[in-house]
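Email to the structure team, subject: Terminase model.

Hi all, the expression group asked for a predicted structure before they design truncation constructs. Nothing fancy, just the tokens so they can compare against earlier work. One-line instruction: predict Terminase, return tokens.
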Amino acid sequence: MAKASTKAIRFLETLRIPEGPKAGQPVKLAPFQKQFVRGALADGISVAVLSIGRGNAKTALSSGIALGAVMGIWDRQPHREIIVAARTRDQGRIAFDFVVGFIRGLPEDEQALFYDPPQPET
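Reply from the structure team: attached below.
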């Protein structure tokens, strides 16, 4: 049976980049991101902190991990709830938008697991 971190890395690299110049392409984790996932999902670890400079995809990585956790990709448990904390409301919105974007890039049968309310017309 594959380790949780192996399943997580496989899952993260199936996600599609939701926006920007590489939108639609699969996520490609950098070595330091894989190392973080391995450490964060190691046996006996319940909290992990990633402290790196701006522009290193911390929000995208944490959003992908949150999505994988709520989907039970590496640890099946009923009644999942994932809380993402952010320093500002704007940063929290960016994380939420990444999760929604990742969901929209999933196969339709997996997208159907999530409720996506219609957006108001502007």
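DSSP finds five helices and no strands in the chain. Helices lie at 4-12, 31-40, 58-71, 89-104, 108-111. Ping us if the truncation boundaries need rechecking.
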